[in-house]
Amino acid sequence: MDAVQGAPTIDFAKMDGLVPGIVQDAKSGEMLMLGFLNEVSYQKTLESGFVTFWSRTRQKLWMKGETSGNRLRVISAATDCDNDALLFTVEVEGDGLVCHEGTVSCFTKPITVTTSK
User: Fold this and answer.
1) Facing residues of 55 across strands?
2) Fewer CB within 10 Å: N-end or C-end of the chain?
3) Which strands, in side-by-side order, build the sheet including 72-79?
4) 91 has which bridge partners?
5) What is the largest CA-CA distance in the chain?
6) Where are the alpha helices (DSSP H) in the chain?
7) Where are the beta strands (DSSP E) in the chain?
8) What b-and-e string marks burial along 4-43, b requiring 16 or more CB atoms within 10 Å of the CB?
9) How far apart are CA 50 and CA 37, in angstroms?
10) Average pLDDT along the chain
């Protein structure tokens, strides 16, 4: 797949054609969700300006919010130092509830971590 002029080449080979895509609210900085992208969904994201993922369970492309109206409009995008993970800062359209469980963020289930001193 052709790279966007001046953009780094994303390494889709490490995870069998997928890279994790972290979605962060551009205004609040809150982490909203994590999804996976393949080369086609990455290209669609770049072309449309809305985050498009690859659904591992349904084995098809899906634009987050295409049915709910809570689309993720990309404000900025970056990759990590290994070019194998993506970070999208977004503006959420609609009512702002990104999670399918009706919450703003998918990260709502606390885990207790015991640390040794």
Assistant:
1) 60
2) C
3) 31-37, 19-25, 86-92, 72-79
4) 73
5) 51
6) 39-48
7) 19-25, 31-37, 52-55, 60-63, 72-79, 86-92
8) eeeeeebebeeeeebbebbbbbeeeeeebbebbbbeebbb
9) 13
10) 93
Rounded distance between C-alpha atoms, residue 32 and residue 92, angstroms: 10
State the residue for tokens 């207790």: 112
Q: Kindly list the distances between the CA atom of residue 22 and the CA atoms of 39, 107, 113, 114, 116, in Å, as whole numbers in the listed order.
A: 16, 12, 23, 26, 30
32-63 pLDDT tens trace? 999 999 999 999 999 999 999 999 999 999 99
Instruction: Please tell me the number of Cα atoms within 13 Å of 113 on its side-chain side.
Output: 4
Nearest to 28 by CA among 115, 96, 82, 114: 96
